[in-house]
Amino acid sequence: MSRQQTIRPVPRGTVPETAMVMAAGLGKRMRPLTATRPKPLVKVAGKPLIDHVFARLQAAGIKRAVVNVHYLADTLEAHVTDRFDGIDVVISDERKMLMETGGGLVQARGLLGDAPVLVVNSDNLWIDGPVDAIKLLASRWDDAKMDALLLMVPLARAHNHRGPGDFYLAADGRISGRRKSGRLAPFAYTGIQILHPRLIADWPEGPFSTNLFWDRAIAAGRAYGQVHQGLWFDVGTPAAIPRTEAILADG
């Protein structure tokens, strides 16, 4: 069989029924585009960032999405309500206080259920590689040994990303540590993960980062990473938009 005729098997694994889409941020780095719209509604390649995310959720078979809202919440809520076929959208309301990523999970905890959930940042834009990235994550999930499974991309392939990397991975995929001060880490977090709600426990009052939960999982040896096989773009600033669109236009 020729290379062109090779059929890649679809990864086997139970895709989470529920996703949480992180969409409540202020979008400060995307100013002035976010002066009149929330960042998830900034358009890239002809459609809002959050629509790109929902297209991936639909393709993977996600049935329910919890979307948190804060900045220009009415606009964002109106956009996502009854818009995406096959996905029931539920709003987690952070209008009174922006809770950050960890606090956002706590705020939405009662909406997430007790099974593993997909958590996705709404300012991500990714292209699947040989297989669907969400299904690939689901195929790697092992409930007996994982509380968090993060999709990562090699730092050299993190388009528009200016950070020094985030994590080190062991040969078995376990997250062996975070980036050390003054050094680069080989993998950047893509903003896409499967998280078990049992990890959402013993939280502080007020806003805080998901790093609190990750650090616990890493210390317990229950945080893993999966390397993304396709393209990934950090679309955090206005300048990143034309660069992203140029790469996408090249196919």
Automatic annotation (TrEMBL):
UniProt xrefs under SUPFAM superfamilies: Nucleotide-diphospho-sugar transferases
Top-level taxonomic group: Bacteria
Domain called Nucleotidyl transferase: residue spans: 19-140
Entries under InterPro entries matching the protein: GlmU-like (IPR050065), NTP_transferase_dom (IPR005835), Nucleotide-diphossugar_trans (IPR029044)
Keywords: Nucleotidyltransferase, Transferase
One Pfam family named in its UniProt record: NTP_transferase
GO MF entry, a single one: nucleotidyltransferase activity
Gene3D superfamilies: Spore Coat Polysaccharide Biosynthesis Protein SpsA, Chain A (3.90.550.10)
PANTHER family: N-ACETYLMURAMATE ALPHA-1-PHOSPHATE URIDYLYLTRANSFERASE (PTHR43584:SF8), NUCLEOTIDYL TRANSFERASE (PTHR43584)
Protein name: MurNAc alpha-1-phosphate uridylyltransferase
